[in-house]
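no rush on this but wanted to send it before i forget. theres a chain ive been looking at and ive put its sequence and its fold in C-alpha coordinate form underneath. please have a look and point out which stretches look like helix strand or loop to you. thanks a lot i owe you, the record is right below:
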Amino acid sequence: MTPKELCYIEDALGHEQQMKQFCSMYAQQIQDPKLKSFVQEMASKHQQSFDRLYSLLNM
Protein backbone atom coordinates (compact mmCIF):
# COMPACT_ATOMS: atom_id res chain seq x y z
CA MET A 1 0.00 0.00 0.00
CA THR A 2 1.40 3.39 -0.92
CA PRO A 3 1.76 6.17 1.67
CA LYS A 4 -0.96 8.14 -0.14
CA GLU A 5 -3.37 5.20 0.04
CA LEU A 6 -2.56 4.66 3.70
CA CYS A 7 -3.22 8.34 4.42
CA TYR A 8 -6.59 8.11 2.65
CA ILE A 9 -7.60 5.07 4.68
CA GLU A 10 -6.54 6.72 7.93
CA ASP A 11 -8.61 9.80 7.07
CA ALA A 12 -11.60 7.67 6.12
CA LEU A 13 -11.30 5.70 9.37
CA GLY A 14 -11.37 8.93 11.35
CA HIS A 15 -14.41 10.19 9.47
CA GLU A 16 -16.32 6.94 9.94
CA GLN A 17 -15.47 6.84 13.63
CA GLN A 18 -16.57 10.44 14.10
CA MET A 19 -19.86 9.90 12.24
CA LYS A 20 -20.60 6.80 14.32
CA GLN A 21 -20.02 8.79 17.50
CA PHE A 22 -22.25 11.64 16.31
CA CYS A 23 -25.05 9.27 15.33
CA SER A 24 -24.83 7.39 18.62
CA MET A 25 -24.85 10.63 20.61
CA TYR A 26 -27.84 12.04 18.74
CA ALA A 27 -29.74 8.75 18.89
CA GLN A 28 -29.62 8.94 22.68
CA GLN A 29 -31.29 12.36 22.56
CA ILE A 30 -34.05 11.52 20.07
CA GLN A 31 -37.50 10.80 21.48
CA ASP A 32 -39.29 9.60 18.32
CA PRO A 33 -38.84 5.78 18.17
CA LYS A 34 -38.71 5.55 14.37
CA LEU A 35 -36.21 8.36 14.00
CA LYS A 36 -34.15 6.99 16.89
CA SER A 37 -34.05 3.58 15.22
CA PHE A 38 -33.03 5.14 11.90
CA VAL A 39 -30.14 7.09 13.48
CA GLN A 40 -29.01 4.00 15.41
CA GLU A 41 -28.95 2.11 12.11
CA MET A 42 -26.81 4.89 10.62
CA ALA A 43 -24.38 4.49 13.52
CA SER A 44 -24.25 0.77 12.83
CA LYS A 45 -23.58 1.37 9.11
CA HIS A 46 -20.71 3.72 9.96
CA GLN A 47 -19.26 1.06 12.29
CA GLN A 48 -19.49 -1.49 9.47
CA SER A 49 -17.71 0.91 7.11
CA PHE A 50 -15.03 1.51 9.75
CA ASP A 51 -14.54 -2.24 10.18
CA ARG A 52 -14.23 -2.80 6.41
CA LEU A 53 -11.69 -0.01 6.03
CA TYR A 54 -9.75 -1.22 9.04
CA SER A 55 -9.56 -4.70 7.54
CA LEU A 56 -7.70 -3.19 4.57
CA LEU A 57 -4.84 -2.34 6.91
CA ASN A 58 -4.47 -6.01 7.88
CA MET A 59 -3.95 -7.20 4.32
